[in-house]
């Protein structure tokens, strides 16, 4: 249930955050530029109106979600820092200092599930609006990257041990009989599985792997016999059976039990041959530097991601870009709707003028500017490792990282403007002092 709105007209007896804080601070300026009423209007129908516990204010929850990706901290971290940072509190709509935590960290999880992908896309749209005319550039660059999931590097031995652990946990929870727990056996097999690259240990490690797989299959079959027909664990057992049946050359392999949608993606990197997660596509304005599109995919061919990405860009900005520069991974698409796709290729034909060839070369050189932007998204805005669950979590993390990048861009711009103002003021003050000294010496 939505809480009743508080009356903010009455001034505090001592002080308010609005009067105390530095009004030139970028976070202070951003809090006054964001259209918070838009979020209240769009997210209010998602709450019950007449029963239940009063919910936290929508501005508070949206502000915490933005600050989390803006500062690259966890749910627990942003909740703790909110109680210590006055600018965080003012950004989330607080008028007076509060020393207690605003909410429980798990409430952020529930809020993200409540608003879903459409709500997060609304936050991305607002971040584009904040950038003003810079987001209306008709020339864009598009590229894809891998958003890695928060899983360990998958190996068959790890997956089989997790199956054993899961089966034993289900048996303990449901109080089912198990003929053997294999605790001591697995400990001895773990010793044999070490140092498998040494020539003397290869055969011993291979035999230990096979034995662990046999134990995992034995426990799965035993659980199948003992569980009731309509048990909630049937889907988990089917997943375990799929992991046990897959081989090196199998398609649609499972790389994680808790994230079965994880894909194995190879982008041709020398230092990291395979990455486990999903594919993310970004649309970046070529001349102004605003992310106007961010979308998640599984492991599609890059050319097949162009059309939905451009549709999202048109939905967020209001118009489709005229030109989109891409790399050779998008081979096969020359035009989508009103957008012309520019692929780097040698100019062998005589139909293009030298001027047009020069413009195309400049466009492809500028396209490379999206690579460091993706690096900043991974290093500074939580795109490097995705902790959200499921396919919906993948898409939410991508859009929130892009929104945080756009907000950070404007904050840096305001910071530079403020520094320039004080620099000019200081130079004017120095000039006036110098001029007064000259006037005194003249007499």
Automatic annotation (TrEMBL):
Xref: InterPro entries: Transpos_IS5-like, Transposase_11, Transposase_InsH_N
Residue stretches in coiled coil: none
Domain Transposase IS4-like: 266-407
GO biological process: DNA transposition
UniProt domain Transposase InsH N-terminal: residue ranges: 16-114
Entry GO MF terms: DNA binding; transposase activity
Protein's UniProt name: Transposase
């Amino acid at each position: 249930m939505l809480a009743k709105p508080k009356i903010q007209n009455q001034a505090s007896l001592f002080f308010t955050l609005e009067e105390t804080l530095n009004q030139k601070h970028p976070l202070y300026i951003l809090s006054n530029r964001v259209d918070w009423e838009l979020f209240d209007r769009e997210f209010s129908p998602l709450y019950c109106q007449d029963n239940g516990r009063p919910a936290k204010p929508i501005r508070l929850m949206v502000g915490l979600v933005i600050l989390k990706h803006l500062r690259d901290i966890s749910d627990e971290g942003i909740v703790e820092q909110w109680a210590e940072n006055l600018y965080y509190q003012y950004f989330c709509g607080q008028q007076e200092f509060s020393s207690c935590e605003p909410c429980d960290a798990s409430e952020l999880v529930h809020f993200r599930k409540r608003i879903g992908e459409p709500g997060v896309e609304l936050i991305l749209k607002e971040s584009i609006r904040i950038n003003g005319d810079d987001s209306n550039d008709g020339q864009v660059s598009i590229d894809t990257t891998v958003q890695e999931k928060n899983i360990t590097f998958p190996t068959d031995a790890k997956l089989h041990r997790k199956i054993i652990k899961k089966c034993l946990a289900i048996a303990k929870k449901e109080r089912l009989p198990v003929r053997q727990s294999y605790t001591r056996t697995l400990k001895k097999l773990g010793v044999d599985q070490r140092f498998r690259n040494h020539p003397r240990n290869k055969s011993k490690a291979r035999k230990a792997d096979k034995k662990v797989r046999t134990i995992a299959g034995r426990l799965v079959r035993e659980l199948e016999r003992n569980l009731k027909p309509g048990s909630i664990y049937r889907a988990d057992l089917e997943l375990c059976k799929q992991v046990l049946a897959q081989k090196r050359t199998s398609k649609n392999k499972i790389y994680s039990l808790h994230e079965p949608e994880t894909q194995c993606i190879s982008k041709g990197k020398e230092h990291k041959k395979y990455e486990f997660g999903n594919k993310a596509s970004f649309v970046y304005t070529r001349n102004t530097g605003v992310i106007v599109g961010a979308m998640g995919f599984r492991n599609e061919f890059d050319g097949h991601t162009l059309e939905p990405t451009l549709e999202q860009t048109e939905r967020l900005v209001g118009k489709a870009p005229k030109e989109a520069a891409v790399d050779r991974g998008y081979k096969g698409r020359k035009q989508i709707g009103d957008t012309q796709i520019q692929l780097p290729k040698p100019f062998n034909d005589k139909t293009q003028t030298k001027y047009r060839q020069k413009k195309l070369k400049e466009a492809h050189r500028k396209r490379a500017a999206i690579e460091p932007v993706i690096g900043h998204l991974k290093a500074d805005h939580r795109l490097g490792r995705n902790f959200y669950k499921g396919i919906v979590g993948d898409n939410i993390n991508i859009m929130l990282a892009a929104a945080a990048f756009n907000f950070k861009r404007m904050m840096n711009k305001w910071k530079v403007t403020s520094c320039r103002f004080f620099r000019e003021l200081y130079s004017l003050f120095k000039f006036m002092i110098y001029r007064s000294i000259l006037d005194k010496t003249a007499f």
